[in-house]
Specification:
The complex is a heterotrimer of chains A (432), B (310) and C (307). The two termini of chain A are 30 Å apart. Chain A is α/β, with parallel strands linked by helices and 432 residues long. Chain A has two domains: 190 residues, D-Maltodextrin-Binding Protein, domain 2 (3-Layer(aba) Sandwich), CATH 3.40.190; 206 residues, Periplasmic binding protein-like II (D-Maltodextrin-Binding Protein, domain 2), CATH 3.40.190.10. Chain A is built from 19 helices and ten strands. Chain B is globular and about 75 Å long. The N terminus of chain B is likely disordered. The chains are: A alpha/beta (432), B mainly alpha (310), C mainly alpha (307).
Chain lengths: 432, 310, 307
């Protein structure tokens, strides 16, 4: 989930807990570190465990309760405030153990060397090397073990099975078939794809990642950019405006099939609308399936990876390190944090979590994901035909989501890519 | 911030120096002790962070962890960054427009409240209320008015045009909403200053002018405005100082959007907090400090000149 | 403004220009009111219309706060709900934890006022009485320099500093509010102190009072009008601030009343009736105090504005 902060669902029960979750987002665009009680509230020997992925807060709450009952240690404080972790590092009070969406932001912690090396721990030995490798794709040539993958999500196009059948549409395997399918739905008066531009992250992890990731070598692209460093030049053959040009053009083509009011719709609107059968396709990850299920438990949905070329062999699905675990180097509770980490990495706990929440366990020999709603992605995951979302490599200082909003409303791919190029060049210059 | 800035403290030296002889003797230690807490706290909580910030603007620090000096890289990059430049353009443009709006409206209200009107006390009481309300709260109220009430009124009138949609989501008009709410909140203070100024003008001046047959309009341009010049300057200085730091009301209305069209410099600096741009935004802060100083010095020069005429 | 501010001025409250002095001897400035002539009805009417720009948003807040959730999403929002729904206030009360956020806001504001009064008045006194000493003169300009350092400039380092000291909460906010209030307050006090004749102190000194005693027993009470002015400005600035607490305070449960209002932009974006009930509750304390003490507050603010 790339949306840890954005999806506090409106209108949910009015509880104090939700209040403080909301307040955490609170400092409004600046994200004050909402660390409930780090200064005084918690005892000195209390471990603070942070996990703020909204869809599974309840699940982890139970895990922590179970842990507390059997650990024989002071109870762990479970912090689920949706807040900026960077702000907590800036304040010098990161959580003692974090289970957090791993992308560029979190990779900064590895690169700035503020995390504990976990290479020699037992859990690190159980992780499948190709999953651990995903961590290293973010600017870590040394292949450090500072972050242990806990859960990977595979994502593709969620589709409404009944609408596909009713309109005689097969699951597309090539780009032309995708466009054809969209056309068919449009002609039949069905919204082909439900877009939610109001919340930028939905576009970044959805249409942008699918289109770009499906056409380019994501890890290779960013590895090249790192290699080029501050020599980066806009418009060069390794730049965004060259490498991503075709993909972004196809993206705007595909966005033509979004609902008319996409610009004014957000994540929860999307889940609701798709759950009510208002659209045939929805570019969201498995985290949205639970939300859709809440709208209509009987709705039959399935997933396929978005084909971006006319060769079915090229098709790949998006994966991301939905959760990764790390322990800040400065924690005074390293030993206790390690104990909780080891507990959470027990195969029956980590595998069960992933199975039940439609994710994939990073452990070697983990069982396959049984849920049929994501079964369409299984063979791609198994055969390694996946990429990490290109948006997850872009640091938050580049407002990709805002640019996407602008692009999908005004439709100028050149301007969009030029901005990415220029922002990247500036970033490279000052990180030099 | 007061008329005194015009003349003091520089002119203090020329005041009748009644106390001069006493100070030939040793200064009682108590005076030092009285000054010390203010100086020490001020240095620790303002000067020190300012210096630290300036130092970090020369590094690639992200707010934690390892860092190294990168020279003036941050500054070089900043001056080509459209996000930051547009924040300056927005902030300065917004300040200028708002200062004008606030001063014109406050002056009109002051003239009105100073005229022979009914309900004077009640009206005055009403106009001053916005002063005591928190900017963020009133911005939230206006947020609803702009995004929901206004469009639905316009729509029900059957008029089309940009106002039938929320102006907060309109890249070209969103800034206007910020001007309106900022003015709403800032007018009372300017109004108080103008009222005080108007009251200091002796009636005889107007009586004489009226005898000479000057119309009210003429009286305003020929008498009131020149005599009020000093107060206009005060209001401008006060206004610019506040508006350059625009933050609360923007957060309540647009949060910098749509896109980044209403992102103020203050907002832009605060993003350095959680986007890994700590050092970069500290460079921005240093430049912002220089801009503030330059604007303030220009204004002080203006005041000194005006001060003579007061 | 009526005669009131000027006529209540004593020689001590406002160091007057020669012109004002002269006017005071004549019995205070004459008011427009004194200038006979008929009521200016067009001006009255225009002002009444203009006052709607203040009253309408306030009415709107009130109307929304008393609506039911269903009414709150209908139409323009201006219709007055009947019967009035009081339930939103209870929800807003719990959601923002009103007693807590109110208390925190109040403590910060009161702390800011007390801190500002004590620190600034002492420093100003020391400076004013030693103006011919370089150290004091320079200190004056040094403290005044903060006018050029807006909070955003030092915000990020201050976040780190307060976190390091473990005061990244109401305490830190109070301290910083005092710091940022200092320049203006020192300016006001210094101007005022110059008008207090030193002879008043001399007699006390002759009686053996120390500088410390002279300040607290004689000068500080004489500063009363300026204390009121400085206090009102400090209180309003602190009470209504959003920027500083939202950045400095790390624990969301220690946030101030203005900052907690943001939950209605995030989690409860569609509960308009509750949001407006909460906004109303956030506005009311200062409005009520203002209405009750209007004359006194206006006097104080005016003194600060023109002095």
């Amino acid at each position: 989930m790339d949306h840890s902060v954005s999806s506090v669902t409106p209108g949910s029960g009015l509880s104090r807990r939700t209040l403080f979750k909301a307040l955490g987002v609170g400092a409004l665009g600046v994200g004050s570190g909402g660390l409930a009680g780090c200064s005084g509230g918690l005892g000195d020997d209390t471990l603070r465990f942070l996990m703020n992925k909204p869809e599974v807060v309840g699940y982890f709450g139970e895990l922590i309760t179970a842990y507390n009952e059997q650990s024989g240690r002071p109870p762990v404080f479970f912090d689920s405030t949706p807040t900026s972790i960077s702000a907590q590092f800036v304040r010098g009070v990161p959580p003692d153990l974090a289970c957090y969406n791993y992308q560029y932001e979190a990779s900064t912690y590895v690169n700035r060397d503020v995390l504990t090396d976990l290479r020699d721990t037992a859990p690190a030995q159980q992780i499948a090397p190709h999953v651990q490798e995903l961590v290293s794709q973010f600017a870590d040539e040394e292949h450090r073990f500072h972050v242990l993958p806990y859960s990977t999500a595979a994502a593709g196009v969620i589709y409404n099975v009944a609408l596909f059948e009713d309109n005689g549409v097969e699951v597309p395997t090539t780009w032309s078939e995708v466009i054809q399918a969209c056309q068919t739905f449009q002609d039949a008066g069905v919204v082909p794809i439900y877009g939610t531009y109001q919340e930028g992250w939905t576009m970044a992890q959805g249409i942008f990642d699918y289109c770009v990731g499906g056409m380019i070598d994501v890890a290779g692209f960013y590895a090249r950019l790192r290699e080029v460093g501050d020599e980066f030049e806009a418009g060069a053959d390794y730049s965004f405006s060259v490498v991503m040009a075709d993909a972004v053009a196809r993206m705007t083509e595909l966005a033509e099939f979004d609902n008319e009011d996409a610009a004014a719709r957000g994540y929860s609107d999307g889940n609701l609308a798709f759950g009510q059968g208002q659209a045939a396709m929805y570019l969201q990850g498995p985290w949205a399936l639970g939300e859709i299920e809440k709208v209509d438990p009987d709705l039959q949905v399935a997933t396929f990876p978005l084909p971006m070329t006319d060769d079915p062999e090229d098709t790949k699905c998006r994966v991301n390190l939905d959760l990764g675990m790390w322990i800040p180097a400065q924690t005074p509770h390293r030993e206790a944090a390690m104990d909780l980490l080891t507990y959470l990495f027990q195969p029956d706990i980590i595998n069960t979590y992933n199975a039940e929440n439609l994710y994939y366990s990073p452990l070697e020999d983990a069982p396959a994901q049984p849920d049929e709603r994501v079964a369409g992605l299984q063979e791609y995951v198994d055969s390694g035909r996946f990429y990490q979302g290109p948006s997850t490599f872009i640091p938050p200082t580049i407002p990709l989501a805002n640019y996407l909003q602008e692009l999908l409303i005004t439709g100028d791919p050149q301007a969009f890519l030029r901005k990415l190029d220029e922002d990247w060049r500036r970033l490279a210059l000052r990180s030099a | 911030m007061t008329t005194d800035t015009a003349t003091s403290p520089g002119t203090r030296a020329t005041d009748p120096g009644a106390e001069a002889p006493r100070h030939r003797s040793r200064v009682p230690r108590t005076y030092y002790l009285m000054l010390l807490p203010a100086l020490a706290l001020f240095t620790f909580f303002i000067t020190l962070p300012a210096l630290a910030g300036a130092l970090f603007s020369l590094t690639n620090y992200v707010g934690f962890g390892d860092w190294e000096f990168v020279g003036i890289n941050n500054y070089r990059v900043m001056f080509t960054d459209p996000k930051i430049l547009s924040a300056y353009v927005f902030t300065i443009g917004f300040s200028v427009v708002t200062v004008i709006v606030v001063n014109v409206l406050a002056m009109l209200l002051a003239l009105g409240l100073n005229a022979k009107i009914r309900l004077k006390t009640a009206l005055r009481g009403v106009f001053f209320v916005p002063m005591v309300i928190s900017g963020i709260v009133i911005a939230y109220v206006f947020n609803y008015l702009f995004s929901t009430s206004l469009p639905s009124i316009v729509q029900s009138l059957g008029v089309g045009g940009p106002l039938s949609q929320s102006i907060l989501a309109n890249e070209d008009l969103a800034w206007l909403s910020i001007v309106i709410v900022t003015a709403w909140q800032s007018i009372p203070m300017a109004l108080i200053i103008y009222l005080a100024g108007l009251q200091a003008i002796p009636d005889e001046v107007y009586e004489a002018a009226a005898l000479d047959g000057a119309t009210p309009g003429k009286q305003f341009w020929a008498i009131t405005l020149p005599l009020m010049a000093g107060y206009v300057v005060i209001n401008t200085v006060l206004g610019v100082k506040n508006f350059l730091n625009a933050y609360d009301i923007i957060v309540g209305l647009t949060n910098g959007g749509p896109g980044t069209s209403t992102m103020s410099v203050a907002m832009s600096i605060f993003t350095g907090f959680n986007s890994g741009d700590y050092a970069y935004q500290m460079a921005n802060a240093v430049i912002f400090f220089l801009v503030t100083v330059i604007v303030s010095v220009l204004q002080l020069l203006l005041i000194r000149r005006r001060g003579v005429q007061l | 403004m009526t005669a009131q501010p000027a006529s209540t001025q004593t020689a001590a409250t406002v160091p007057a220009t020669r012109e004002q002095e002269a006017r005071r001897r004549r019995g205070g400035p004459r008011l427009r009111k004194d200038r006979g002539g008929p009521t200016n009805w067009p001006a009255t009417l225009l002002l009444v219309l203009a006052s709607l720009s203040v009253l309408v948003p306030l009415y709107f807040t009130l109307a929304m706060a008393f609506k039911t959730p269903e009414q709150a999403v209908q139409g323009t929002g201006f219709t007055w709900p009947w019967p009035m729904n009081w339930a939103s206030f209870a929800d807003a009360w719990t959601l923002t934890d009103f007693p807590r956020s109110f208390t925190i806001s109040l403590l910060i504001a009161v702390g800011t006022v007390v801190g500002t009064l004590i620190l600034s008045s002492m420093a100003s006194y020391a400076i004013a009485r030693n103006w011919d000493r370089k150290l004091f003169r320079w200190s004056y300009f040094y403290l005044l320099a903060a006018m050029f350092i807006p909070f955003p400039v030092v915000a990020l380092p201050q976040v780190k500093l307060t976190a390091m000291l473990g005061i990244d909460g109401p305490v830190g906010v109070t301290v910083l509010h005092v710091m940022f209030q200092m320049s203006f307050s020192v300016l006001l006090y210094s101007a005022f102190l110059r008008s207090i004749p030193e002879e008043i102190e001399e007699s006390a000194r002759v009686d053996g009072a120390s500088t410390w005693q002279v300040f607290w027993r004689i000068i500080f009470p004489l500063l009363a009008p300026m204390n009121a002015t400085v206090g009102i400005f400090a209180f309003l600035a602190s009470w209504n601030d959003f920027m500083m607490p939202s950045l400095i305070t790390s624990d969301p449960t220690e946030q101030t009343l203005p900052v907690v209002q943001n939950i209605f932009q995030l989690a409860f974006a569609t509960n308009y009736n509750i949001a407006f009930a909460s906004y109303l509750m956030a506005m009311l304390p200062t409005i009520v105090v203002y209405v009750l003490a209007q004359r006194w507050i206006m006097e104080g603010v005016t003194r600060g504005a023109i002095k």
